[in-house]
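Dear support,

We are seeing what looks like truncated structure output for some complexes. This example has two components. We would appreciate it if you could run it in full and send us the complete token output so we can diff it against ours.
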Amino acid sequence: MLVATWNVNSLNARMPRVEQWLAEVGPDIVCLQETKLANDAVPVEVFADLGYEVAHHGEGQWNGVAILSRLGIDDVVDGFADGIEPDTDARLVSATCGPVRVNSVYVPNGREVGHEHYHYKLAWLKRLRAHLEATADPAANVIVAGDWNIAPDDRDVWDRAAFEGLTHVTPEERSALADVVDWGLVDTFRERYPESGLFSYYDYQAGRFHKRQGMRIDYILSTLPLAERCRLDLVDRNARKGSKPSDHAPVLARYAVD
DNA sequence: ATGGTCGCCGAGCGA
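Here is the complete output from our reference environment:
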């Protein structure tokens, strides 16, 4: 079972790249973020022709998340299932895809430390933990994948000094992420590759990709039953190259699961 | 080469 997550930075703008990539790579499940589409604007027939069913939770213009699956899509939940008020943004969609419960997440950016949006980010991660507690079992096959907008530790940024005072690296954000992970998730990519320099996101500006100056903020977390069966973790750097790429590369994980 | 980003929409903001 091949699983991917990819912040496409507008599915409309990225559709040619996404179609080509799906045809070439053939993942079974794909979590998408920043589709920037309303639900009725999703090209479901194009995905169907490629063999995928789609669960999309969008608002148009900003945010928007989706799950593509070749293994079926059931029990779709838009946003948080924590019994509180709906989220203001479309940042989470969950579905059961064959043997696994999948959550596609687009964690708020935070903008600036102390900003209202930064507090929204921290609160959002608390709600994600509550959502997992309400909808999933850490002893089952669960994936939580997406754009986390947090570098889990200093290996996950190209230059720690360059991020001093900025979001994505603060102890508060890392602690909020750790609280989600502590529900029962494993960062298999980090377990497999302890070194720095393996990034999933590169700013479009200043030739960051060419200079390998990026961040690892996209990752596929899985519960232990899946993590134990994980046989491959990688970033598809090729998808960050060439004409009209997203600023994020797809991240993939393969599991020995039927 | 003294600049060097996209995508939203059609100005300036968000990432």
